[in-house]
Amino acid sequence: MSRASNTSRVALFNLGFIALLFLTLCSCSEKNDSTRPNILFIMSDDHAYQAISAYDNRLIQTPNIDRIAKEGILFTNACVTNSICAPSRAVILTGKHSHLNGKIDNIMPFDTTQITFPQLFQQAGYATAMFGKLHFGNNPKGVDEFMILPGQGNYINPDFITKKGDTTITGYVTDLITDFAIDWLDKKRPKDKPFMLMYLHKAPHRPWWPRPDKFKEFTKKTFPEPASLFDDYKNRGTAAKTAEMNILLHMMYSHDSKIRPETLVSMGNVQPVVPEFKNSFYETYDRANAEQRALYDPVLDSINTFFKANWPGMTDVEKMKWKYQRYMQDYLGTISSIDDNVGRMLDYLDESGLAENTMVIYTSDQGFYLGEHGWFDKRFIYDESFKTPLLIRWPNKITPGTTNDEMVQNLDFAQTFLEAAQISAPADMQGESLMPLLTGNATEWKRDAVYYHYYEYPAEHAVKRHYGVVTKNYKLIHFYYDVDEWELYDRKNDPQEMKNVYNDPSYAETVKMLKTKLAGLRTKYKDSNELDQKYIDQIQK
Known about the structure:
Elements lengths: L2 H32 L3 E7 L18 H8 L2 E3 L2 E2 L5 H10 L3 H4 L15 H7 L3 E7 L11 E5 L9 E4 L2 E4 L4 H16 L6 E6 L11 H7 L19 H5 L4 H4 L2 H4 L4 H7 L12 H6 L4 H21 L5 H37 L5 E7 L18 H4 L3 E4 L8 E3 L3 E2 L3 H8 L14 H4 L11 E5 L11 E5 L3 E6 L5 E6 L17 H17 L6 H9 L2
Parallel strand pairs: 1-8, 1-9, 2-11, 3-12, 4-5, 4-8
Antiparallel strand pairs: 2-10, 5-6, 6-7, 9-10, 13-14, 14-15, 15-16
Helix pairs in contact: 6-14, 7-13, 7-14
């Protein structure tokens, strides 16, 4: 064999070795990248945990949302730090309490210098996108692609803010948001990167307009009443007695019960008198085209015909019951569409092969009252608004069918997602990663209490400012602004929170212990009441 031939063989061998090394390195790189999961964060707006059948099947069946729990984990004590829309979203994005991110209520501005977790995902090489309701700002940070609703958004033919400008799209908002999210996953995202997708529903926020088929279906249904629908707030403090969120007294007719303004005008004096927003019925109805109105009108007309014929002769008890049913029919009708669309998304993940390496999270920006204590809306630290649904699926990481009762918060989401994606969290984030609870290492979880602070008063619904500490067994609350009242609830023995036992001598040691714990949490989270005066100054302008 010639020297040249030998040299050629050596050269070929070296080239082959280099090629093999290159392929091996590429393979390792792809393998390492595949260890970083995709993150699909699904959040609805005002979705009560009671309206998910995995939690409670008396009101509605939600088989697709339930599927996330069946194939993953269901948290029964998940809660928020501040039960109101924009502040909750700011807490989720920053991993910081409201007083640090600036968004203490729906009025005060978000501190745009704050680092949000989508920015960190983007910097770490993830493809990022946001579709749906952000609620504040029109240029979300850290997302490659977005289509977001301006403010609260609309159910019918909604407007969207995009990088290319504003646009109005014909259709029903829940379906459209899902269309955009799936289209991005299927056609627009870079396939060589893991993704972090925020898929954010407007529903079931007021004014609760179901899709026409759901509207027709759900107006034929009757729903069980909560035991405390006619609560008289005995054994509670001033805050519960003065809140303006009673279904009979404060839920609007044309905005929330689908009574046409002309019906109210033709009837003259409709009692009880409930303040109306100008043209509130038509805020949504006017967005519908002729074809869409033709689908809504028969049901709307039947509601208005019944109201006109029966309302004057009803007792207050009958009126409360009727308004509750109208509320549930519309509210749950919008949720049925969410469940259908979550099913569409889960099916897409399965069919595309993405499901295996995707962490799917379903939650809401807070809970909601579905007639408990006679209320609608949220804001209070009482359970129905304080607690929020949280269901997470992560194949091969979370044991299917797991239930967990630890005190977890929306404050924890950012750090959880970052740890799952192997991204370092900023030291000033205040949450705790849920990874130990997701991966079966519960002994590493040390938290035994969470902190809550609500600011938006005086304002709509008149829920007084308060802060508090909550454990699995107890809830201590301080209403502090124009009153100075404390409340204590025994969560195990009084799960409906009907009796304030703060002044009961048998709970004296519990009060002492919880006040110490509350003071410690306020120090830990660097909270005070300094922002209260800023809020007063803002709303007086």
